[in-house]
Amino acid sequence: MAAFLRRVARSTPIGFGAHSKSSRSNFHLPLTAIAAISGGFSYLYYSSSPNLVHSDQIGDEDIKTKNIALIPDKWVEFKLQDTARVSHDTHLYRFSFDPTKKLGLDVASCILTRAPFGQDAGEKPKYVIRPYTPISDTESKGYFDLLIKVYPEGKMSQHFASLKPGDMVEVKGPIEKFKYTPNMKKNIGMIAGGSELLLCFK
Ligand SMILES: Cc1cc2nc3c(=O)[nH]c(=O)nc-3n(C[C@H](O)[C@H](O)[C@H](O)COP(=O)(O)OP(=O)(O)OC[C@H]3O[C@@H](n4cnc5c(N)ncnc54)[C@H](O)[C@@H]3O)c2cc1C
């Protein structure tokens, strides 16, 4: 991981090699996008009616006008374009959508992902839901990247590990953890541990 972070700091491209030979599939990890602010998310399981749309079929005119792929109150399906192994237990996942749109996530916000996970007593589908923080530039159009550590018995991370290019993942967001605006504070200190990040402003 240390070597990976050094590469990130130098903005060295990491290739999606496993499924794509195109040099266009290389990508850069912007240092500014590493921050993940946590808090308040417990492990989530939902037994809910699907409120689902595909990212190419977004009908809301306002969302279309803003060229944003996410819809705050709906689960949107995104297609997995490619994956790349970063370490023995950590993988990059690139999801693609309309190349004229941005994902619609600000720095220090995250998304929710969900995957089917059995059935409840009434035989309705249950879902496992987990938050993730895309590491791609918030200005990127047509794709976003997740960096995910796969746990041996992790419900969602094992689901991610099983995905193949072309598979769909349901995403909801943005979940705004902190509204950051450029130059809002003179100094920002950060203390990071796992996915937790404590911000100190002055
Ligand atoms: C705001 C936010 C942003 C985040 N962003 C990211 C991100 O960008 N990338 C990322 O990788 N993670 C991120 N996380 C963490 C992520 O949401 C999940 O918590 C993580 O992926 C693990 O989920 P899981 O379903 O795979 O594991 P879980 O099923 O929740 O398991 C968690 C742990 O318990 C262990 N476990 C599970 N079942 C058992 C069992 N029966 N017996 C013993 N041990 C067991 C698992 O092995 C694992 O170690 C973020 C979290 C937050 C709060």
UniProtKB/TrEMBL annotation:
FAD binds at R130, P131, Y132, L147, K149, K155, M156, S157. The keyword Acetylation does not apply. Pfam families: FAD_binding_6 (PF00970). Residues 73-181 form the FAD-binding FR-type domain. Its cofactor is FAD. Gene3D superfamilies: Translation factors (2.40.30.10). It is found in: Mitochondrion. The keyword Isomerase does not apply. PROSITE patterns: FAD_FR. Keywords: FAD, Flavoprotein, Mitochondrion, NAD, Oxidoreductase. Its EC number is 1.6.2.2. One of its GO terms (molecular function) is cytochrome-b5 reductase activity, acting on NADH. Its main location: mitochondrion. GO terms for cellular component: mitochondrion. Belongs to the flavoprotein pyridine nucleotide cytochrome reductase family. This is cytochrome-b5 reductase. The lineage of its organism: Eukaryota, Viridiplantae, Streptophyta, Embryophyta, Tracheophyta.
